[in-house]
Design goal:
Blueprint: H1 2-23, E1 31-36, E2 43-46, E3 51-55, E4 64-65, E5 68-69, E6 72-76, E7 81-85, E8 95-98, E9 104-107, E10 122-123, E11 131-133, E12 146-149, E13 182-185, E14 191-194, E15 222-226, E16 234-235, H2 237-241, E17 250-253, E18 259-263, E19 266-271, E20 276-280, E21 296-299, E22 312-315, E23 344-347, E24 359-362, E25 373-376, E26 382-385, E27 388-395, E28 410-415, E29 420-422, E30 432-433, E31 448-452, E32 458-462, E33 480-484, E34 497-498, E35 503-504, E36 511-515, E37 521-523, H3 524-529, E38 531-537, E39 540-542, E40 545-547, E41 550-554, E42 556-560, E43 566-570, E44 583-591, E45 594-595, E46 599-603, E47 629-631, H4 654-687
Parallel strand pairs: 35-46
Antiparallel strand pairs: 1-33, 2-3, 2-39, 3-6, 4-5, 6-7, 8-9, 9-12, 10-11, 13-14, 14-15, 15-16, 17-18, 18-19, 19-20, 21-22, 22-23, 23-24, 25-26, 26-29, 27-28, 29-30, 31-32, 32-33, 34-36, 36-43, 37-47, 38-41, 38-44, 39-40, 42-43, 44-45, 44-46
Helix pairs in contact: 1-4
The structure holds copper (II) ion (CU).
Amino acid sequence: MFNRQLPLLAVALSAAALTAAQLESHKAGSFEDGGDTQVSAMMMFLGNTEKVYILDKSEGNAAKFGDFPAMGAVYDIASRKAETMAVSTNVFCASGMHLPNGSFATFGGNGAIGKGGNVSDITYPGQQYAGLYDTVYGDYDGTKAIRILNPCKDGDDFSSPNCQWFDNASLLSMQSQRWYSAAEPMGDGTVVLIGGFTNGGYINRNYPNVDPATEGGAANPTYEFFPANGRQQQTMQFMIKTSGLNAYALTYLMKSGKMLVQANYSTILWDPLTNEETDLPDMPGQIVRVYPASGANAMLPLLPENNYTQTVIFCGGIYLPDDQWGNYSWPFADTWAIAASKKCHTITPEPEDGSAVEYVEDDDLPVSRTMGQFIALPDLTMLVVNGGANGTAGYSTRTLNTLELPFGMSLASEPVGQPAIYDPSKPKGQRWSTAGFDTSSIARLYHSSAILLPDASVLIAGSNPNVDVNLTAPFPTTYKAEVFYPSYFAAATRPSFTGAPSTLSYGGDPFDLKVSADSYSGSANDAADNTTVVLIRPGWTTHAMNMGQRSMKLNNTYTVNQDGTITLHVSQLPPNPNLFQPGPALLFVTMSGIPSNGSYVIVGSGNIETQPTQAASVLPASQRLSGVTGSGSSSSSSSSGKNDNTNGATSHTGAIVGGIIAAIAAVGILGAGFGIWMARRRRAAAQQASSLSYPMGTAPGGAGGVASSARAGGPGGLRSSDSSAFVPLSQANGSTTWGANASSLSLNSPYYDDPRTASGEFDPYHQNAPRMSTNQARGPY
Ligand SMILES: [Cu+2]
């Protein structure tokens, strides 16, 4: 027993050392060099407390995996170094989401493309614009792909298939092609995938818009489920109503199980189980927030004090008259010269008091912003980073009237390098601040991304408004990451705690966390009164969105102990999984606005299933104790934290002690979590009636059917990847027998998920579910 624990302790100590080192003197409000991401970070997600996974479109990245430009990388948070990973299908502008067990899935993408964004050199038989595989870039058609990854850590074998992407559309794919689809989980962990292009373009319509449902086959007005469990995709009327500006629709699951869906300037509440739509008010001023207007949007922190009322905020984006939005090819306006919106609006789709639903104008952004994105912070504020003051997302070779664009292919200009913080707890008129925030010199425009890290800093990366790698464009393909340090990094002491659970439930018995005495200074009673427990899901980031991002304050009471420690009695989540869907999250203790490191936790059962719920947690009364004080360094920031930034202050050694404790606690917890996860996998495997094993392969997914178009000015330069190229298309070919023509490729394209289990569903958690690339050359791992 003792011997078995030694290795874990060793790991814990080394991890602690790294964490402590990183906590040294980060200047609040500053950006630090985050290293090189190897692939441009169009998409990112936090896999666990050590690794961020990064995905890019197929393009000419210098970094390779095997013989081909890499599309994927795993980024080590502590060392700020990334290593390439195998991804075989073109993950260009996919959607993505966590799964309840902590895995992540990405959905769809583009067809195979080659150099310059042109259609791949191998296309589907008889379909010259439907990219199947490119022999130079090595990417397969990703339009129907479902890719799944189990995040791994340093103690794991990264060369194992279990640490690699599962990316094999012959085994698992969507029912139809989706590029720029929405992805939103339901309360049971099922992911709903909505809409998208079949091939792409600037916006999802021809003009004039005579076929708003399908645009001749270029638009996908349907939704489907993953896992499908036999359910076939259905048409969603809202996708037709919002035709054109409906890609990457903005989706938020509400407590009733319905979803807020916002696209174009329309809004509905939608029941994904019955496909019923209820109209909600239009966006005021017809400001567009969905791609490519790309306004920042997020659900505000869920708070017990207002019974977890779900309010969604939209900021920025842009208004253009309908005819200026253009079509698949390009905008009909010179967007880079048009100011984005400064406006913010909130909506509470299911008000507690049953009052009428309406958009409410909130404080203006400090500056106009397209492609800003909200990051939920553990002090319950919302940070906005990235984007530009003018224009839109997307890229193009030209617009209707301008043949030579001033900023390369970028349709946005004037990068906004200064973050801004929104504090929903402040009175109207005082909610936005940029005080103390540095301005980054790196443009973060189209195809940039940002995500919260476990130490409560923010990783910012990407930007690439270019059809292929372009290092000399005014806004070049960007590989350099930055880490932004919010105001609370001015604190001399950051809280640390032990006792974090590896799982949380919906209702049920509360749990205790013990906050160390060196987490705070001054009166323990006061510190305890100003302590909150905050759960954050950082989400899956792309295109100025963090899909699935949520933050929730958990109820707590406390007991002040004689030794200065504070025991927090913390509620489980409220007994409604629709408020915070099952899956991975970070648990923070925030004292007077200063957060601890986040501890990794799985919310819910870990399975895609109706989540068990119990009665809401009942907390014991708080126990105060006079005369007890904390032993932490006195804070260099004001006790109210949050926006009261102390410009230029740095954290001190007090944080290091806290960091070590937190890291040891976190490693112990993660070790336990991993054990549980492995046990689950073994149990799941044991439950398989037939332990199937599947052939490894890298077959492409989708039936083709696509289009692309002649590049402006000439028929020669066909490309499927950029917005300046579109021709209405041939219909999808649903054949499942492609194999004959490309002997080196294991080709087939199932139209539906193959049944994999006794219940008829492919089971990505099955221990024999194949992962990527055991038959390919390996990267440094
Ligand atoms: Cu994109």
